[in-house]
Amino acid sequence: MTRKIYKRRIEDRIKKFIKRREIICIRGARQVGKTTLLKMLEKMVKSDKAFINLDLVTHRRNLEENPIDFVERFKKPKRRLTLFLDEIQRVKDAGEKLKIIYDEFSDVKMFISGSSSLEIKTNVFPQLVGRLFVFDLFTFDFLEYISTKDDGLARILSKKQKSLKNFIEGNRNIKNVERPSFTDQFTKYLKEYLIFGGYPEVVKSNKYEEKEFILKNIYNLYLEKDIISFFRIEDTSKFEDVLRMLAFNTSNVISLSSISSDIGINYKKSEEFLTILEHSYIIYKIRPFHKNMTTEIKKSPKIYFLDIGLRNSIIDNFSKFESRTDGGALLENFVLRELITNFHGWKINYWRTTGGAEIDFILTKKDEVIPIEVKMSGNTLGKGFYSFLKRYKPKKGIIVTLDKFKKEKIEDTMIYWVPAYYI
To answer: Full-prediction pTM beyond 0.85?
Structure first.
């Protein structure tokens, strides 16, 4: 039986660079679909090509020992070759080897993938400045998730998201597709996504018990093989304690000093663990937005998880959304994940004053400042939102809800209340 392969949205962004000479690098965690994406890109190439899995020791060794011979093993004289090198971070001095190939073979195009952002940043990027385009692949976002369930709903959702994006990026009002439709279906799928996330194998499964098993397996294997083993972490129990603490505090401002004290490790070790988790695509940090150096928080980051299902696996909680006490944190984490995917080129921060006023997200690009607040319930804005409007006078603002839609104008700011899946 042939397994269905779902198109990833990032594919259209990458396709624009297929004919250019630069190396295409696809980074992401284990089992997010990097190999599948590479193979889909391979099918688009009609000229000579070779797909090499560098998890295999023999392939790795051949590339490490002599990159020139490695290429000539696959390349025919006077013909263009496209190389697909999967899991490049396994190769010792990978950047040096790739540079040799790039400089020696003008008719060789390379696509590479890697699971460790830190390893690629350290051992690949320095040697390939000006020779590399980098794309980050995450688990399925919500539109990709819906596309695996219902093509019709996916088309509708795509229009809703484009409408909101048009409002944020230029137009003052959301046009044509303002009101929510099929709310019950979208909310049902959203609540499921908030529990199990977007790992491809999890999304493809229709059984809750199977989803739980797959997520726990991904967590255990990824933790042991690609994090603890790869980064040679000796105090594994402390590392796991830090990860669990972060999972229980997702969507919150974190203090490394508090983590260090609670876990019983020094500050430097906490910092090291956080860096590893960030570069392994487990967590994502956002920094505070500040212009007033005396009244606004400037240092402490907020922590989110790049896959909500993995986060729930870490704390071993797959309870239904309606019965959870962390529903607000999950919804906020969801919004952050969608902002990362859908708003390239925008900077994402949060805002908090020393007096306690707070807004979940601030989008900025050039002189544009857009506050985004996530609300599980209620129909009124908090004091923090009004405080930000008064101080910065943004033209637009977004209130993200589970399923509400309305618009209002506060002085010169147009505010849209939208369901979370619009983001």
So the answer is: yes
